[in-house]
Write a structure and sequence with these properties.
This is ATP-dependent Clp protease adaptor ClpS. Keywords: Hydrolase, Protease. One of its GO terms (molecular function) is peptidase activity. The structure is a single chain. 58% of the residues lie in helices and 19% in strands. The chain has 91 residues and is an alpha+beta fold. The protein has one domain: 2-Layer Sandwich (Ribosomal Protein L30, Chain: A). Helix 2 packs across helix 3 and helix 2 runs antiparallel to helix 4. The longest helix has 14 residues.
Length: 91
C-alpha cells in the first residue's frame, strides 16, 4: 500500500465519524398546516414547497427531520419552532 492510498483511507474514516444533528418536528393536533409551513420557512429557511412537504410528512408519519447541521446552527432554529408552539427537538 502506498503512502497516498493510506492517507486517503484515513481521511475517509475521519469523514464518516462526523455526525450532524437533526431537528425533528412532531405532529400535534393544534397547529394548522399554514402555521407549520410559515414557521418552517421562517425558522429553517425552507422554500415554500419544502416546508409544505415537511408539514405533510409530519401529519401523515408523525414526525419529520426538518433540518440537519451543527448543534450551534440548529439550537436557535429549534427555539424558534418551540416559541411558535410547534413540537420539535434536536437529536
Amino acid at each position: 500500500m502506498s503512502i497516498k492510498e493510506k492517507q486517503s483511507v484515513e481521511l475517509l474514516l475521519k469523514e464518516e465519524t462526523v455526525k450532524e444533528n437533526e431537528i425533528v418536528l412532531f405532529n400535534d393536533e393544534v397547529n394548522t398546516f399554514d402555521h407549520v409551513i410559515n414557521t418552517l420557512i421562517y425558522a429553517c429557511d425552507h422554500m415554500p414547497e419544502q416546508a409544505e412537504q415537511c408539514a405533510l410528512l409530519v401529519h401523515y408519519k408523525g414526525k419529520c427531520t426538518v433540518k440537519t447541521g451543527s448543534y450551534d446552527d440548529l439550537e436557535p432554529r429549534c427555539s424558534k419552532l418551540l416559541q411558535a408552539g410547534l413540537s420539535a427537538e434536536i437529536v
